[in-house]
Every structure is written in C-alpha cells, then in structure tokens.
Amino acid sequence: LELVLTDPLADEYAELFRKHKLQPPVIPRRVMAEESLATFGEDYFDLVVSQNALDHSVNPVDAVLQAVHVLRPNGTFVLIVHPLERGSRETPIGLHRWNFANVNGSLWVHEPASRKLGTQESLFNVARLVAPYADMHCEGAPCGSSVLDGITNGCCALRATTGSPPCLKSRNIG
Question: Which backbone phi and psi does 106 adopt, to 5 degrees?
C-alpha cells in the first residue's frame, strides 16, 4: 500500500517538522490539486480523498477533473467539503472563497464574489461536467465524524468509469 499525501503547504509543514524534530509516518508532497495530472499522470491512484481542501483551491472544478484524471478505472474519489455557503459567510478571497451545494445529489460549486456581480460563469454543476467519465453522488449527511466549526461537512463520492475528462485550464474561474 502506497500512501501519498499532498498539500500546497507541504514545504511549510516540512519546516515545522524539522523545527519541532518530528518525523511523520508519511511526508506530504507539495502539489496543488490543479497540478495532479502533471504530477502523477493518468490512472495513478485507486483512491483519492479530499477533506476540507477543495474550497482552498484556485479552481475547484478543475481540481475535481484532475482527480478523475489520476484515478484508475473504477477508482474512487471521496470529497468532503466544508459546510454549505461557508464562502458567503467569509471573506471571498483566499481560503473558503468557494461555496458548495448538494442539489439532488449533484455537486454545485460557485464563487460568491462573482455571483454577486451577476455573472453566471461562477456557477458549475460538477456532477454534470464529470458525468461522461465518472459517476458522482453527493450526500447531505455527514461523512464519517468530520466536523468543522461545529457544523457537519457534506460528502460526495465519485467513481471513475472510462476515459478522462478534459481539464478546464482554458476556463479561468479562479
């Protein structure tokens, strides 16, 4: 079993590990979610898990598509997102700038700042975008015992089927 941890802040974690003389069982690698395909290549993982991280990405839609790329056929992507509409309650830049919604089992992503300006480009049905390549279903119920700020997170599971989706590098939503 190979366990791979990735985080854009991995270099900062490494410095903290050194400073405090800690040796974690697995050292995180510095990888942005939108760089997963370039880093690992297609069909690399059987399982990808993202917990309370997608809202920190530059482009969460592309991050999900990247996860589908790196999954082997019949691989699973488990996505645990922060409470709905958190992006609307916080500063709409940097961390927590995206809102997530479970609409009839489909994951929707939108950027509150753009939505307030009336642009429709900031609203994406992620389940529809990945449908040709993966089955995705979201639950409103908690995923395990994940709780953030006393509010239960939502959970989506995605199972890769065949082929790989196009990435949205050409569509700037960040």
Answer: -110, 140
Query: What is the rounded distance in angstroms from the CA atom of residue 136 to the CA atom of residue 122?
Result: 20
Record the pTM.
Answer: 0.76
For residue 39, the tally of other CB atoms under 10 A from its CB is 15
> Is 61 in contact with 168 (CB distance < 8 Å)?
yes
Q: Are β-strands 134-139 and 123-125 bridged in parallel, bridged antiparallel, or unpaired?
A: unpaired
CA 116 to chain centre: 23
Only one residue has tokens 């049905």, namely 125
Cβ-contact 139, 154 below 8 angstroms = yes
User: How far is it, in rounded angstroms, from Cα 30 to Cα 14?
Assistant: 10
**Residue whose C-alpha is closest to residue 174's, from 128, 122, 118:** 122
3-class secondary-structure state, position 129: helix
Burial 49-66 (b: 16+ CB within 10 A, else e): ebbebbbbbebbbbbbbb
Per-residue pLDDT of the chain (174 residues; tens, 9 = 90+): 899 999 999 999 999 999 999 999 999 999 999 999 999 999 999 999 888 788 888 888 899 989 988 988 888 888 877 655 555 555 555 566 777 777 777 888 887 655 444 454 567 888 888 888 888 877 654 444 333 333 345 566 666 665 445 444 333 333
Question: CA–CA separation, 124 vs 108, rounded Å?
Answer: 5
